[in-house]
Amino acid sequence: MSNLETHPVPSLVGGTSAVAAEPVLEPLPVKEVWLGESRVRRLLPTLGRRMVGAWCFLDHYGPDDVAGEPGMQVAPHPHIGLQTVSWLHAGNILHRDSLGSLQTVRPGELGLMTAGRGIAHSEESPVPHDPVLHGAQLWVALPDAHRHTAPAFAHHADLPVVTAPGVRATVFLGELDGTVSPGRVFTPLTGADVALADGARTALPLEADFEYAVLTMSGDVRVEGSPAPVGRLLYLGCGRDELRLEADSAARVVLVGGVPFEERLVMWWNFVARTGEEIASARDAWMEGDSLGVVHGYHGPRIPAPELPPVPLKSRGRVR
């Protein structure tokens, strides 16, 4: 999925100086942005925090009634230096990319695209498509040793599950409680969708050296005794060996976490790099030719890159 903002703000992210080394409960602000004809909630990067582990971007969208509507229509656009994770609770999305991949992603399935040195893709609601669309789109920053890796796309329909009374956690990326997703990762991560039954009370095991955050997708949930409203991201810091969750109705939350990302990164539009010069070079490559890839089969023009800001891309830190 693309960042479709016409005036994206560049920022430097990563580094561990602002990571909460102890457990915290920090509700993060929500920024609403347009994705085509739909409004989505941008939770990372946001005012106050830009990363959780290697997770550097998180949009939550829906549930939206798309019956009789085009649904998601994101034209071809490029990425470098990251992985994209498509995660659905309702609806279906057709993924195309410059490798020739053509895959419909459905609820409970992992669509994992590794941009590496460069890839282009599109995402659209197929025809016909399901009447409701609800999901999350996440990006993972690639560490320096792997950011120029060959681009790839993987689809995993069968994902491992951690269960306890009233709880079913699907591990879509990384590891939770010794259960490992088949999705390839390049830094220690957790990405899990936790379904809680009405009245569930549980404690999920965590890694004390990870930092974590929880997104409530649906239902009435308390995290460590604090309300966690739908569509909000609650930052948890580090130093936890378990996470207490309570549900007063059937609920779903997404848990993301990982080892704090030490490297400093420049993020702008759909690119993750190390310098402003690399960002400018990637933008030029997209606007001037096909070196970042061509998506065949999408009916419509590709998305042009926004203009770069008139000032050099410069550091704003992990937290602002």
TrEMBL record:
InterPro entries: Pirin, Pirin_C_dom, Pirin_N_dom, RmlC-like_jellyroll, RmlC_Cupin_sf. It comes from the Bacteria. Belongs to the pirin family. It holds the Pfam family Pirin. CDD domains: cupin_pirin_C (cd02247), cupin_pirin_N (cd02909). Residues 192-289 form the Pirin C-terminal domain. Gene3D superfamilies: Jelly Rolls. Residues 39-140 form the Pirin N-terminal domain. This is Pirin family protein.
